[in-house]
Design brief:
Blueprint lengths: L2 H11 L6 H21 L10 H15 L5 E5 L7 H8 L6 E5 L3 H14 L3 E4 L16 E5 L4 H12 L4 E6 L3 H8 L3 E9 L7 E10 L4
Parallel strand pairs: 1-2, 1-4, 2-3, 4-5
Antiparallel strand pairs: 5-7, 6-7
Helix pairs in contact: 1-3, 2-5, 3-4, 6-7
Amino acid sequence: MTAEDAAGLAAVEAIVPLTAVARDRLVAYVGLVRRWQPAKNLIAPSTLPDIWRRHVADGAQAHLAAPDADRWVDLGSGAGFPGLVTAILIAERPGSRVTLVESNGRKGAFLQTVIRELGLPAKVVVARIESAAERIDGPVEAVSARALAALDALLGLAEPWLSAGARGVFHKGRDFESEVNAAVHSWTFDLLEHQSRIEPDGRIAVLTHVRRRAGD
């Protein structure tokens, strides 16, 4: 393990505790991102040197916000942040499952490679989010998304699972208050905000009892 990986793991462990198995899987995952990045452009190149803090530790905050959730859907998964991080963190729990929804075939292939090589309890649905619900079976306890859409649109994308009782666990930035003000015209929900431990202006928003307002 490199000194950079050791420091990165320490940053993640400042967010959530890690088992030895999870530590090894996270190091392997970061290695795969680095290996595939030149060909697949998985993350913004400028963030690659800070991948542990900007992506892995940040992604771990989804699990921190809903630590009891074992069945997740991750929307717009991209390189797997936070979905694959969540899968790694809950992989040793019986019955855990993360479904990653990603429309980009190249990124979907990367996600499938990570799942296979690390033996994660996860699957990839390569499809637009709007058509993914019919391909996901069983109960879902939490829906995650990071830098995907404004809250109003995001609730519409996640509605199939939120309306069935799943929690929404969404990474949000400095515009979150205005996004909430816009969303309440079309939606009702209970909201719990957690200050991001990575981004000073960031929030991890946990939404429950999400319902579309009558007439919308």
